[in-house]
Amino acid sequence: MNSLKFLLKYIKYFIHSTNAHGIHPPFLFELYNNVIADQTPFYAFSDIESIRAKLLLSNLVIDINDFGAGSSVNKSKKRTVADIAKNTLKAPKYGQLLFRLVNRFKPTTVIELGTSLGISSMYLAAANSKTKVTTVEGCPNVSKVANVNFNKIGLKNIELINAQFDVFLPEYLKRIDQLDFVFFDGNHTKEATLNYFKLCLPKTNKSTVFVFDDIYWSKGMSEAWEEIKKHPKITLTVDLFALGIVFFNTDLSKEDFVLRY
After folding, report:
1. Largest Cα–Cα distance in the chain?
2. Angle at 18 between CA 13 and CA 21, to 5 degrees
3. CA 244, 175, 127, 116 torsion: positive or negative?
4. Domain for residue 109, yes or no?
């Protein structure tokens, strides 16, 4: 998506978004005030951001095998780590939101489809040492850099799988009874996003949380997000522009919210 179209989408989002004053369900009111809008600096944030700062300065060149939609900025198969960090890593506030969501819902397991250099993985894992984070990255060279970062920060509850999502996900889902928390952050195409969503659906329960990255990244991703929101198994959704959060709690009414973040 070109910059002008993306800007227009953001303006539309901002106009339609609301803050705490426009939220009526008690569950979401509490979540917005205590999790989404919270700015408390947790101990792990500075350590993770220190690693990000080093990545942004790294001139290491690696070969990229991109199995998804690819970068909208750099199509080269050889990229510096700094370039990958600049163009693919989520901004600190979104990584910190992932941390707070895990801290709030305390899932036993987290699945992340799309490790990249591991910044979001570390935010997911740092929230609770008892939560096991399984993160999947298709490119072996990117996986190696992420593993170095995990070792630097000393997080022991991250398992990195170097595999294509289409191969990993069906096999993984056969081995588990339920999904607690899934962060969909790779292969940003409509077809792939909907496919992974549908594969995961049978393993959800009322406590499951799905987070979708880059829901306005392209026309296809926007269409995927609209289709996901309409699924009858979903009750409440939250649109934060860069992220979409999905809940399956049957105690909640079926509503879609666009919240300012």
Report:
1. 50
2. 180
3. negative
4. yes
Q: Which residue from 22, 221, 213 is spatially nearest to 121, judged by alpha carbons?
A: 213
Res 159: pLDDT: 98
What is the count of structural domains for the chain? Answer: 1
Q: How many CB atoms lie within 10 A of CB 65?
A: 11
The domain that contains 175 carries what CATH number?
Answer: 3.40.50.150
Q: pLDDT digits over 125-175, tens only?
A: 999 999 999 999 999 999 999 999 999 999 999 999 999 999 999 999 999
For the whole model, what pTM was predicted? 0.93
Tokens 């199995």, residue?
67
Domain holding 224, by residue range, is 3-50+90-258
C-alpha R_g of the chain:
17
Phi-psi region of 118 (alpha: psi -120 to 50; beta: other; left: phi over 0): left
The pLDDT of residue 65 is 80
